[in-house]
Amino acid sequence: MQDVSLLLEALPFVNRYKGKTFVLKLGGEVVQSPENLDMLSQDVCFLNKVGIRVLLVHGGGPQANELSERLGLTPNFIDGRRITDRAALEVTKMVFAGQINTDILSCIRRHGGHAVGLSGVDASVLLARRRPKRKMKDPDTGHESEIDFGHVGDIVSVDSTLLRILLDHDYIPVLSSLGADQAGHVFNINADTVATEIAKSLEADKLLMLTNVAGVMRSRAKGDVIPRLTPKEAHGLMKDGTVTKGMLPKLTSAVEAVERGVKRCTVLSGLTPHALLEETFTDRGSGTLIEATPPRKRATKATKSTGAAPRKRARKTR
Question: What are the residues facing 96 on neighbouring strands?
């Protein structure tokens, strides 16, 4: 009977999201383990089979670092941002558009889905330009210098024509975060930014950022996950130092997506079994939801990321 109850709980959400578009951003650490990738692919296929239009955007930082080191190259970062010289770009193309994209496609196929592998270079999905040099301050020394990021791109525009055709015909597009300019020069683009721009272009109902943590935490030491934030609240947490390091660019992208018209964005764990389905089809949800207008009744007690059942949240807008 418990299984039947779970199905009945999911039914209203199946009805609500049928025909809607979800953009899922998968971090490189999320697809690093074959077992975890297989589990995620199963969940993605479930979403697709109940009528949700699903598009995946993936990064691959850890895998690019690993291949670089095997080739005798040293990955170069400034304040957490990758410097992409010519050799690093070649590694990025091999890993992003090759290894990771193909691994995701094969897992989705195993679970009965029909996926198409792409990069932003295909059909000019992502028109980009080379990132200009920037003055940045070294957090350790305080010294400011001009940084050339190399073959790192900023998005100029998105052409989602091909993506819409694929989604309309029940395919699952799997997009790696590469783009090119009008002359065909290829650039490495931040995957969070790509997912945000794609979600905006497709007028997605949800942007889900699957990462290696349970959500936005008020206290990492205690594992307190903040269940729901408005953009204003999120800005406050970034300003006062509550949100730092790897979560900072993710939350920045999530907030930007909502501020630019994506209805809602959730930052959640891509390593917790079936967190994606829990977020989509249950009242309690999973991770941290960012949306412009909170419901009247706001839950006040934080969720623990210890594996215990999270508290129930108002889901009228979730």
Answer: none
